Amino acid sequence: MSDALPLRSWLFIPGDSEKKMAKVADCGADAVILDLEDAVSPDNKPLARRLIPDFLRTTPRGRRKAQYWVRVNPFDSGLTLDDLAAIMPGAPDGIMQPKTNDPDDVRRLSHYLDALEAAHGIERGSVKILPVATETAIAPFTLGQFASAGLERLAGLTWGAEDLSAALGASTNVDTSGHWAFTYQMARSLCLLAAHASGVQAIDTLYVDFRDEDGLRAACRAARAEGFTGRIAIHPAQVAGINDSFMPSADEVAHARRVIDAFAASPGAGTVGLDGKMIDIPHQKQAQRVLAQAAAFRARA
Ligand code: COA
Ligand code: MG
Fold first, then answer.
1. Which residues, 6 or more positions from 187, have their beta carbon under 8 angstroms from its beta carbon?
2. Could you give the CA distance from residue 149 to residue 103 in angstroms, rounded to a whole number?
3. pLDDT in tens, 53-72
4. For ligand 2, a single-atom ion, which residues have Cβ within 5 Å?
5. Helix, strand or coil for residue 172?
6. 275 with 133, same domain?
7. 12 close to ligand 1 (CB < 6 Angstrom)
8. Residue 4 counted as domain residue
9. Domain total for the chain?
C-alpha cells in the first residue's frame, strides 16, 4: 500500500441525473464516480457528456469535499475519446476505466490524458486512473503485470463480477449458498494481490442489496480484514457503513498499541508473546500501519 490515505467509499452516480449529482455535497463519500458507461442509456450519453463537465466545474479541485471521478466507456465501444474530450475541461480527479484487458489499456488511456491535461492546463499526471480490471475473460490473467508496468497514474485496482459473468456467458456468478462462485472469488483475490503488488488501493466491488446495512457492514469488515482498502457504493445509504468499516476500529487500534508496546518492552526482539500467542515482525508492521491509518483518518475528518 502506498502512503497516500486510501479512499474508503466510491459512490457511483449516473451521469445523466442532475438530481443525484446534486446530492454529492452532502453524501459523505471519499470519492464519487460520475458514470458515462453502463448506468447511462445510449440515448442519454450526450446529455451525460454535458452534465458531467458542468458539474465538475461547479467546484474546482482543491475545494471539493470528495474526489470527483468519471467512469468513461471502454475502448471497444468507440466512445472513450469523445467521453474524455467532453469531461476533461472540468478537471476530474480521476478516470475509472472499465473492461480493461491488461496494463497496456491503462497506458493508452494515460497517453490520452497526457495530451488532454496539456490542452486544458491541468497539472501533468494529476488525473489518476482506477481500472476495473477483471471484466473480460483475459483480464484476470494479466493482473500480475500491473506490478511492473510503471503506470504512474494508477491509483488502485478494482474488480467487477457482472461484466465478467456476461463475458463468460454465465447465467450466475454466485454459488448455491449465495456467495461468489469460484471464478469470481479468484478474480477478486487476484485483484487484491495485484493491487498490493503494485502499491495501490484495493477496492472491493459493489454490494448490490443497498437496503441491507448490516450485511454491507459485515462484508466490508471482512473485506478490510483481507486487505481491501475501500469499496464501491451504489446508493448514498451505503456510504457511512463503508466509511466506518474501512477505518481501523477502536479494538484494532487498542490491540495495535499493545503489539507496539510488547515489542518496545523487549528491545531487539524479533518475536515476543502477547496473550499467550507468538507475534513477530509482520504483526509489528501491521500494528504500525493500523496506527498510522487511524491517525491519518482522524486528521482527514
Ligand atoms: N447517488 C446520489 N443520489 C442517489 C443515488 C446515487 N447513487 N441513489 C439514490 N439517490 C438518491 C435518490 O435520487 C433519492 O433522492 P430523493 O430522496 O431526493 O428522491 C434518494 O437518494 C433515495 O433513493 P432511493 O429511492 O432509495 O433509490 P432509487 O430507487 O431512486 O435509486 C438506484 C436506486 C439503484 C437506481 C440508484 O441508487 C442509483 O442510481 N445507483 C447508482 C447506479 C449506478 O451508477 N450504477 C453504475 C455502477 S454498477
Ligand atoms: Mg459494468
1. 134, 139, 140, 159, 161, 164
2. 7
3. 999 999 999 899 999 999 99
4. 38, 163
5. coil
6. no
7. yes
8. no
9. 2
Beta bridge partners of 32: 11, 68
- Does 51 share its domain with 179? yes
Q: Which residue has the cell 465501444?
A: 77
Global pTM? 0.94
Q: What single-letter amino acid sits at 80?
A: T
CATH number of the domain encompassing residue 213 = 3.20.20.60
Q: What is the 3-state secondary structure (H, E, C) of 235-272?
A: CHHHHHHHHHHCCCCHHHHHHHHHHHHHHHCCCCCCEE
Does the beta carbon of 55 sit less than 6 angstroms from any atom of ligand 1?
Answer: no
Answer whether residue 1 is part of any domain: no
Please check whether residues 293 and 202 belong to one and the same domain.
no
Domain that holds residue 140: 9-246
One domain, residues 181 and 285: no
Q: Measuring from atom 46 of ligand 1, which residue has the nearest CA?
A: 39
What pLDDT digit, counting tens, does each position of 178-212 carry?
999 999 999 999 999 999 999 999 999 999 999 99
Judgement on whether residues 167 and 288 belong to the same structural domain of the protein: no
Same domain flag for 280 and 223:
no
Q: How far is the CA of 235 from the centre of ligand 1 (A)?
A: 5
